[in-house]
Design a protein that fits this description.
Low-confidence stretches: none
CATH topology: Nucleotidyltransferase, domain 5
Largest sheet: 3 strands, antiparallel
CATH superfamily: ATPase, nucleotide binding domain
Number of strands: 8
Number of helices: 3
Strand order of the largest sheet: 1-2-3
Number of domains: 1
Strand content: 15-25%
Distance between the termini: 23 Å
Helix content: 10-25%
């Protein structure tokens, strides 16, 4: 993809699963769990700093496991849950082809509601 091309993505952060769909045709569904190794032994065994989705659930005994969303909203009061959402978003974007150093312009980010939904605080998606 050329640097001037835009990748349009739709992201649904859910309490149990999160989904992403992109204009390049990629679609993914991921369990909304994020985990960090509890100690250095776990970090050496897992060979990763963060595990997301099914991998996090499968290795939950070695992780500080977080499910950062509750009833469709970010849990309040925990910096670790905020960091978990950041990691989940980064993971979803990497799945559809956004590189680690890919830039996201805040002026191009907007929230919209799918057609058929009744929430009036957000405009309908095109």
């Amino acid at each position: 993809m050329a640097s001037t091309d835009l990748l349009h993505v739709g992201i649904d952060l859910g309490t149990s699963r999160s989904a992403i769909s992109a204009s390049n045709g990629e679609r993914f569904l991921v369990d909304s769990f994020v985990g960090w190794p509890v100690d250095m032994v776990a970090k050496k065994v897992l060979k990763r700093d963060v595990l997301i989705g099914h991998e996090a659930v499968a290795n939950r005994t070695m992780l500080d496991l977080h499910r950062p969303l509750e009833r469709g909203l970010l849990k309040e009061g925990s910096e670790k849950d905020v960091e978990a959402v950041r990691e989940l978003l980064k993971h979803l974007l990497r799945l559809v082809g956004v590189s680690a150093n890919g830039t996201v312009s805040a002026s191009n980010v907007r929230a919209c509601r799918p057609s058929g939904r009744t929430r009036r605080s957000q405009p309908a998606c095109p």
